């Protein structure tokens, strides 16, 4: 069982969550540290004790976004297991991350700021690209094992992940649609795998 957070850690997390809410509502540039402090229920001095600047607070949000994705690293390819079962597990893992409410809030803030200030979000974009490389690596291993026809692993990776995001990321991030139901998540994952295996001429 996880130990309860110390008071200072609870305040830090409250500040981050308040910043996410305020950045989403008003944008990075117009959000003040005073407003973040009020929303977090702490003093302005407490905010500055944890985050000397608004830029450092935004950097913490990007760090948490990266951490939440890195924590859900897909399992490595296993030549002893059926390809379809592994793909289903791989994409179910991805779906779980995409539909996590905290991850979606972090992504909304980061993407909105990336539009207004690309320089500020360059590190996030680079890190997320590295994270998505894990699926490409998995596909290369399956291909080397003779289980996938000669497909471009990078293109195939974009196809697989893009299909999930069409239903389970972009509508939630850009249109504030609710997360998919568990049944719909499973349906999207299964349909994506079936279409991909047909396209890739996979062999078990």
TrEMBL record:
Xref: InterPro entries: DNA-bd_HTH_TetR-type_CS (IPR023772), Homeodomain-like_sf (IPR009057), HTH-type_TetR-like_transc_reg (IPR050109), HTH_TetR (IPR001647), Tet_transcr_reg_TetR-rel_C_sf (IPR036271), TetR_C_Proteobacteria (IPR039536)
Listed Gene3D superfamilies: Homeodomain-like, Tetracycline Repressor, domain 2
One Pfam match: TetR_N
Residues in the signal sequence: none
Key words, A-Z: DNA-binding, Repressor, Transcription, Transcription regulation
DNA-binding region, residue intervals: 32-51
Gene Ontology molecular function terms on file: DNA-binding transcription factor activity; transcription cis-regulatory region binding
Stretches assigned to the HTH tetR-type domain: 9-69
Name assigned to this protein: TetR family transcriptional regulator
Native organism: Duganella flavida
């Amino acid at each position: 069982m996880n130990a309860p957070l110390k008071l200072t850690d609870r305040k830090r997390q409250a500040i981050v969550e308040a910043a996410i809410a305020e950045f989403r509502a008003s944008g990075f540039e117009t959000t003040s540290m005073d407003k973040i402090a009020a929303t977090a229920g702490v003093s302005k001095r407490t905010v500055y004790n944890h985050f000397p600047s608004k830029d450092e607070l935004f950097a913490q949000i990007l760090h948490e976004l990266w951490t939440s994705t890195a924590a859900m690293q897909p399992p490595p390819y296993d030549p002893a297991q059926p390809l379809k079962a592994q793909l289903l597990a791989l994409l179910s893992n991805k779906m779980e991350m995409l539909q996590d409410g905290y991850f979606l809030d972090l992504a909304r803030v980061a993407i909105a700021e990336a539009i207004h200030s690309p320089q500020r979000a360059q590190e996030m974009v680079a890190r997320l690209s590295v994270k998505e490389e894990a699926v490409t690596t998995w596909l290369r291993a399956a291909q080397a094992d003779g289980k996938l026809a000669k497909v471009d692993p990078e293109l195939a990776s974009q196809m697989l992940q893009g299909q999930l995001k069409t239903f389970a990321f972009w509508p939630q991030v850009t249109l504030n649609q609710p997360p998919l139901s568990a049944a719909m998540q499973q349906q999207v994952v299964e349909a994506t795998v079936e279409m991909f295996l047909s396209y890739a001429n996979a062999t078990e």
